[in-house]
Structures are given as C-alpha cells and as structure tokens.
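Form P-L/3: holo structure prediction, ligand 2-acetamido-2-deoxy-beta-D-glucopyranose.
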Amino acid sequence: MAFRNCGFAVFTLLSILILSYSQVFAGRELVGGRIKPSSSPFSSALEILQKQIGYTFKNIGLLRRAMTHSSFSEENNKALSILGSSVIDTSVSLHSLAKDIDMSPKELNRLIAEISKVETSCAGDGMQLGLQKVVRVSPKTNSSMPSVVCGAFRAIFGAIAIDTGKSDDAETVFWSVHGGKVGKALSM
Ligand SMILES: *[C@@H]1O[C@H](CO)[C@@H](O)[C@H](O)[C@H]1NC(C)=O
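OUTPUT (holo model):
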C-alpha cells in the first residue's frame, strides 16, 4: 500500500516536472516567434524609418501602429494621427512665435493651415520619407493616396509623443524632418 502511494507520488511529481518544463519550452518558442518578425520587410522598413527621422522608439509597437492604415487592421494609426496633427500645430506655433513674438494671429493661423494641408505639405513630407512604401494598407487601398501618406506621417509624431509621454521630442523630430520649411514660408 505504502509502496503504491509512493509510486503515485513519484508519478505525480514527474508529471508536474514534465508539464512545467514543456511550458517553459513553449514560452521560449513564443519569444522566438516574436523575434522572427524583426527580419520581415516591414520591420526592416521601420528600422530604416527610425534612422531617417533620427528617433529610436522604446516601444517599436507604436511605430508599427503608426504605419498601419485603418483599411489594414483595427489596430491602426487613426487616433495617433490626430495627436500627431496637434503636435505639428504646436511645433509650428512655437517656432514661429519664438522667431517673431509680434507675428499677427492671422499670419500664425495661415502658417498652421499651410502645414495642415493634406495634398501639399503633409503628404509631401510623408512621400519624402517614402511612407507610401512602408505603410500597411489593404490590397484594395492605394498607399500613395495623399490621405494615407498624410495620416501615416502625422501618426509618427503622435507615436513619439506616446513613446516619451510628452510632446517635446515629437515636436523637435517634426521640425527636423520638415526641415524648417515653415520658416522659409515666413520670409516669403
Ligand atoms: C495611387 O494614388 C496616386 C496618388 O493619388 C496616383 O498617382 C496613382 O496613380 C494611384 N495608383 C493607382 C494604381 O491607382
């Protein structure tokens, strides 16, 4: 009787050991599965994009989301794009007023409106970064459409703001990516 119980105890112990070992192993496989996508073309494109904008994400998932159009997935860049748009407006206002505190409100509004234009400014900046080749869209969606490129471009700055928990770095990165073109418009 005692021997039987002992045998059962050993069997139970072995089962638990095997089970926990297999879970650890499964865990490793899961981690390996997560590492794999970093060698995909999309992940490589995100690496290049980070170098282009001069900002490295702590959470690369935010840039993945910024480069995902709503036609592709429910996890998309729509909300990040709204935040990014506001970051861009702030960056333009800050630089313009720092340069000329006497600037008229009309002129400031004109500069903000100009930077927000989808067709020219926003999509142009996005195209220059080659976002139309990076952003993930559904097969039926043309990723070169200004609305798509623009949304992805704005979302970059929303993503940086979330990554850092403040908008300072996002504003700085926007200003360097945009190349101070607003200042030039100002002197015209
Ligand atoms: C995609 O959109 C761009 C910009 O609007 C346009 O020039 C291009 O012809 C479109 N491509 C297709 C395949 O519709």
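COMMENT: The chain has ten helices and no strands.
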